[in-house]
Amino acid sequence: MIKLKEGRASLGKRLNERSISEMLEYSGVVIDKPRGPSSHEVTSFVKKILNARRTGHAGTLDADVSGVLVVMLNSACKLSRFLSKSTKEYVSVMSIMPPASEKEIEEVFSHFRGKIYQTPPLESAVKKQLRIREVYKLNLLEVEKTRVLFSAKVEAGTYIRKLITDFGMLLDRDTKMLELRRISAAGFSLDNAITLQTLSDYKWLADNGKPEKLKSVLVNAEELIKLKKVVADDEAILSICKGANLAVPGIVSLDENIEVGEFVQILTGKGELVAIARALLSSGEIKNRKHGIALDTERIIHIFS
Predict the structure, then answer these.
(1) d(Cα 167, Cα 174) in Å, to the nearest integer?
(2) Helix (H, G, I), strand (E, B) or coil at 89
(3) Percentage of the chain surpassing pLDDT 70?
């Protein structure tokens, strides 16, 4: 991180000093979504369990799909569009009728690694137009008669259900998705995820004077997003909270390699997220200037007064 000057850091709290109520206001939770309920229904369950004013989710999963679903709480819902959407990982079981050999399946898989053309399936809610998506990894894990287990790491917006349909076209066989589980999304994996029942249990403990378990699964807003960081001084932060942009003199430190047009997070000296902003200057330009607007405030997350 590039340090430009010393700055006052009296506003707010350090993340490890937040109370459970403050964490619930500015955090999210990674849920291991079960098969059955829709993503919207799971989000509603979380809202009810945690008595939240508002909840939102990132990366919709169909009702029959399980796995990682990031649910944002209260003020953290403002971060939805800024969560990492670059890659997602899945494990899937598909059926092939009649059965195919491992060699035949591997041959088909080889045509779907790298950049592919894909039209969203009819079940999806997005516009049905041809687009390019990238499949970073596609690995055959196991074949048992008509069932095939495979894993895939793909660009956001890639439909595994449609991949399976396209496999069948090349194999000249009937293929069908039997099960799909998302194991990674928005920078979080199943290792970070908990069930709705566990969340309910932890909330009960918190309500009865034992908040440690609930605190341990809440993800601070600052950790939900994977954006480069800019630390501003207290005076600049108070101005940002009133809608101002961030000028060069108000910057205390910043990450290297920030590019013009890139979204970044503005933090207090204690590490609390204040706002998301778009860079008008690169890191190098900010370092070498004494004046000028450096960041255009896009979304205020935490208001200090």
Answers:
(1) 9
(2) strand
(3) 98
pLDDT tens, residue by residue, 42-78: 999 999 999 999 999 988 899 999 999 999 999 999 9
Distance CA 202, CA 205 (A): 5
* Structure confidence at residue 125 as a pLDDT band (50, 70, 90): low
Helices (H), 125-244: 160-171, 196-207, 212-217, 221-224, 234-240
Backbone angles phi, psi at 235, to 5 degrees: -60, -45
Q: What is the pLDDT of residues 239-280, one digit of tens each?
A: 999 999 999 999 999 999 999 999 999 999 999 999 999 999
Q: Catalytic residue positions?
A: 62
Tokens for 202? 């932890």
Measured distance CA(123)–CA(249) in Å, rounded: 51
User: What is the rounded distance in angstroms from the CA atom of residue 80 to the CA atom of residue 214?
Assistant: 22
Domains of the chain, first to last: 87-185 (3.30.70.3190), 225-300 (2.30.130.10)
DSSP string, 236-259: HHHHHTTTPPEEGGGEEEE-TT--
